[in-house]
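hey team, just a heads up i'm posting the complex here instead of the shared drive bc the drive is being weird again. everything in one block, sequence lines first with there labels, then the predicted structure for the whole assembly after. its two chains so it's a bit long, scroll down
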Amino acid sequence: MNKDLLLYEKSQPGRRTLRLGRLDVPAADLSALPAGALRRTPPDLPELGELELVRHYVRLSKKNVSIADSFYPLGSCTMKYNPVLNEAATAIPGFNAIHPLQDSGRVQGALAVMKRVADALAAVTGLPGVTLHPAAGAQGELTALLVAHRHFVETGQKQRKMVLIPDSAHGTNPASASIAGLQAVEVASGPDGLVDLDDLAAKLGEDTAVFMITNPSTLGLFETKIAKISEMVHAAGGLVYMDGANLNAILGVARPADFGVDMMHINLHKTFSTPHGGGGPGAGPICVTQELERYLPSPRVVEEEGGLRLDYDTPYSIGMLRGWAGNFGVLLRAYCYIRRLGAEGLLRVAQNAVLNANYLRVKLRGAFHVPYDRMCMHEFVCNTKNQREQGIHAVDVAKRLIDLGHHPMTIYFPLVVSEAMMIEPTETEAKETLDAFVADMLLIAEEAKHEPEKLHAAPVTTPVGRLDEGRAVKDPVLCYTCSH
Amino acid sequence: MRPNDRHYLPSHEWIKITGDTALIGITDFAVDELSSGNEGDLVYCDLPEVGRTLEDGETFGEIESVKAVADLNTPLAGEVVEINPAIEDHLEILSEDPWDRGWLIKIKLATKDTSKLLDAEGYEALLASQN
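-- predicted structure starts here --
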């Protein structure tokens, strides 16, 4: 059981890590502030010596699981290794000690990084209009839908409000459509897991704004009829949006513009090795056709005689989407990655990501059921159908993997597969790591047959055991109650 | 064999007609699909207001589990006249008895045309074909 105390519980009156020197500037006059805004008592902050503080955080860090200490096949998330060189670049003062309001003449290096990232993304996608503003993939989706809506308003087609989305899509797709003031309409998948063209044809019409497609799909399958789909959407007057979450699989192999995509977002934290999660920041740039470029958010980096600058004079733009022009530190890491690998290296990223996923699929398909068992892209979905009689669910396999030292795969997504386990190894894993994972998955499959209770009890090696996820949703305790 | 005193949708809702009204619920298969082996896996159910008019096939609410959120669709058109007061805080009733105590809403039928719905046999065949 976790016996770790909180900083507040470890606090002892008078303990200090640092004592501030005597004030050597005039004290600020606070009398101008409203009385109600002035604090009467000091804040109740924990008081600890430096060693206690350092130990506290080092102990916490040891409980963390990350790509830096274990295999992390979390499907749909592309948990590739984030090279240390990316971090080194962000430590350069010319990049980390600047401000967006600085005179552009003094930040030419940073503006050049932004321009070059945008150029590289345009080359990868074949779509020349790039905005680096969106702070995540979902914000990229929203940006693109606002751009599409503006395009339809400008061209006298305001009635186009329907956003068609396959049932295997990321949940953010219909959510983005709703937030943009448009209406999400579900399109069915056929038995092969790909878009059902008859259902798509039936739903396309004069009210169609955008068809949003994730390609490769969340089943790890390339939409083989994508060119035909784009043709159908364009014939109906709609735009094709590609959720670029799975771009890693086709980097340098296929350019989305060539199969009819008009707009797409790119998750730099997936495909271009910038850090995931931890509360961000992220980056989800979008790329669009030349026709749509003028609607992109403002400001944008432009190149003129004499250098680069941020251009705020963008009359057709949907406006500002967030503060400034993107999460610069994230863009810089992506730039570093792109330059280090080059075009040839990026192609090998996709090839090895696909190779690794297929290696795992073939090694595991005897033990676990693979519903769409054919050549996959960067990830594949298996499930616990073979273990059903033993009462084993995907969650049991996932929790047992924790005991065996792996981060679990994504479970219960995509929704079109019952008891789904979605595995994405990424290109950065060595064969030995993949083999060790396979050995443990096969062990779990054996345990499911002979000792199913072992799976139901997992995890047993963690500070806390199996959590009651239902209760966590129904009766969440979100506030710390101070006990001292 | 599932109860043959009612009709089914391919999206796993059932409807049981008695006179001018009908009870609507979800099947044991739906409950199993949403659960991962624990009684408390169903966490939330959003049901319509009494008085709301539902079209054929309309989504009237949603049910959430630790695994997923699923739409609830009405097999037939009608007006909502009652929601099951027992289940709001006790969704485990759906795991225990999805056919009787686990009903979700009661509607006053606008139509009794069940020709587009599945009977128990048809629903069983559908499940078998998906397996």
